Amino acid sequence: MTRNTKREMATSFTATLFLIMGITGVMMYFHILDTFTKNMHEILGLVFVAVVLFHVFYNWNSMKRYFSKKVFVSAVMITLVTAMGFIATASSQGENPKKIMIEAVLSSPIEDAVAILGSDMVTAELKLKQSNLSFSHETSLMELAKKNGTSPFKIVSIITKE
């Protein structure tokens, strides 16, 4: 494969993935097909980073000239200042409330956590045993997950599964 073909491929993939990242980012913002969109955005976002690196590598001479332009430097500065503003705002809001709630449920008494998840202990115990997870009388979902060597989110998924 010639260097020119590699450049064209890197540029084409970069442009295509940029478009997909933009579309899925907007879809995530408006909560359209949340799970599907989030998974696609995250996985293809990692691919996008790799493709961008190839794009920069195969177009380095052109990029060097572009990086030295005042317009590029100005764009980088504006983007960094804006990003810092978001970071400063986010850090002043305290800890993520979703994280607080998740940790509270996972570490609360198991009977309370199961009730919060919309189930009862008899049903939860049956579902856990059907999934080959040992269950005696752990004090929390977190402790139950540790005992079984699994994620507490897997435990939640099993309990809430219809």
What can you tell me about this protein's structure?
This protein has 162 residues and is mainly α. The protein is elongated and about 65 Å long. It is built from 9 helices and no strands.
Q: Any key phrases for this structure?
A:
single chain, 162 residues, mainly alpha, 9 helices, 78% helix, elongated
Please outline what is shown here.
With 162 residues, the chain is mostly helical.
Question: What is the average of the pLDDT values?
Answer: 90
Question: Main β-sheet, in a few words?
Answer: none
In terms of structural class, how would the helical and strand content be classed?
A: mainly alpha
Number of strands: 0
Report the uncertain regions: none
Shape: elongated
Element-by-element helix/strand order: HHHHHHHHH
What percentage of the residues does DSSP assign to strands (E)?
under 5%
Rg of Cα set: 24 Å
N- to C-terminal separation?
A: 52 Å
Which bin fits the share of residues in helices?
over 70%
Helical region count? 9
